[in-house]
Design goal:
By secondary structure, the chain is of the alpha+beta class. It folds into 2 domains: 4-104 and 272-337, Roll (2,3-Dihydroxybiphenyl 1,2-Dioxygenase, domain 1), CATH 3.10.180.10; 119-264, 2,3-Dihydroxybiphenyl 1,2-Dioxygenase, domain 1. It is built from 8 helices and 17 strands. It has helices at 4-11, 14-24, 45-55, 69-75, 128-137, 207-217, 231-237, 314-317, and strands at residues 32-42, 59-67, 81-89, 92-101, 119-125, 141-142, 148-149, 161-166, 172-177, 194-204, 221-229, 243-250, 256-264, 283-289, 310-311, 321-326, 332-337. Strands 5, 6, 7, 8, 9, 10, 11, 12 and 13 form a 9-stranded mixed β-sheet that branches. The protein has an 8-stranded mixed β-sheet with strand order 2-3-4-1-14-17-16-15. A hairpin with a 2-residue loop joins strand 3 (81-89) and strand 4. Helix 2 (14-24) runs parallel beside helix 6 (207-217). The longest helix is centred in the first third of the chain and has 11 residues, at 14-24. It is globular and about 50 Å long. The two termini are 36 Å apart.
Length: 338
């Protein structure tokens, strides 16, 4: 069995090799055309659907049961039988997957905000006060000590209100409220309490390694960067002494992908080497690309989950071809095409 350090050494070079492989194939434009959805593995699909629809205002779009060899290969889980639901909030979608077989491991109770399997989605609210009151009404578990207003000395984040909480399985989620002049124009609407998903955030060990993967390899564009610290940031992330380098990337469409590198403290744990798609700590970002096969190369080593580009039923999945890979820190991405 490969050691964690050996696996890390392999996957850290995936981004550079991916960029070189795409260049060799003549791929000059951004290969990722959109972030289609952000998904997570859940323990009880019906419970999770109720949570996201009743508490957070999502709308159920579809629900299917999937099994068979294509899904084993796509997600790297032998004998997989899954219930998959897609939900929409505003213009964005999430995908919830319950593995009926085989059942995976529970979400680690001791997860900290700087552990590198950490991921969340940031849900935009038109009013932080009303959103927080609704979450308290439903008995949602705190992850932050409470809503935080980020300080004005930070030109990128000053005035933004943010709050971390947990879903019934323990996944971290975030509520954001933007002041006038910050965020996308549609985040200034007040016709609903919850408006959509601004981004998904992932903890990374090295911003440079992650940029080689996401920017240079997948063609995402850097749209923002900041360094956040101070008491408000500590209470938001619930990490004493937190100092973060934050880099936001976007595809031409869909929510952003935010890289969170903890400059301090540097004691965040790496993702488990045996993390599987049926474990509740599993998240996946689904990207649309014209040619998922461009990501297949013998040079990818531990970066590949799917051994081949897998063909599936688009009536069931919303796409016809797909491939799952992992980034330098083990976060999963599913690259799909019609």
């Amino acid at each position: 069995m490969r050691s964690r350090s050996h696996r890390a050494a392999i996957v850290l070079c995936v981004g550079a090799l991916l960029a070189g492989h795409l260049a060799a194939r003549g791929v000059g434009a951004a290969p990722a055309s959109s972030v289609v959805s952000v998904g997570m593995t859940v323990g009880d699909l019906d419970r999770s659907i109720r949570f996201f629809t009743d508490v957070l205002g999502f709308e159920a779009v579809s629900s299917v049961e999937l099994t068979g060899r294509p899904y084993e290969l796509l997600h790297g889980v032998f004998g997989a039988r899954m219930r998959v639901a897609r939900l929409r909030l505003g213009e964005e979608q999430i995908e919830l997957t319950e593995y009926l077989a085989p059942r995976g491991r529970l979400y680690p109770e001791d997860t900290r905000g700087n552990d590198r399997w950490f991921q969340h989605i940031a849900i935009v609210a038109s009013s932080m006060d009303r959103a927080y009151a609704k979450l308290r009404e439903h008995g949602v578990s705190h992850a932050s000590t409470g809503p935080q207003r980020l300080p004005d000395w930070n030109p990128t984040a000053g005035g933004i209100q943010a709050y971390y909480f947990r879903d019934p399985d323990g996944h971290f989620l975030e509520i954001l409220a933007f002041p006038p002049g910050k965020g996308l124009p549609r985040w200034q609407r007040h016709d609903a309490l919850f408006l959509g998903i601004d981004h998904t955030a992932i903890v990374v060990g090295s911003t440079e390694h992650s940029l080689a993967f996401y920017r240079d390899g997948l063609g995402l564009r850097v749209v923002g960067a900041s360094e956040n610290h101070g008491e408000e940031q500590e209470h938001l992330n619930n990490v004493f002494g937190a100092r973060l380098r934050i880099t936001t990337l976007r595809a031409p469409a869909g929510p952003g992908i935010e890289l969170l590198e903890y400059l301090a403290p540097r004691d965040g744990r790496p993702a488990p080497i045996d993390l599987k798609a049926n474990d509740l700590a599993h998240w996946q970002i689904t990207l649309a690309a014209a040619d998922p096969g461009a990501l297949l190369s013998g040079q990818h080593g531990g970066g590949l989950v799917s051994p081949v580009v897998v063909r599936v039923d688009p009536a069931q999945t919303g796409f016809a071809r797909g491939l799952m890979i992992r980034d330098p820190d083990g976060h999963a991405l599913r690259v799909v095409a019609p």
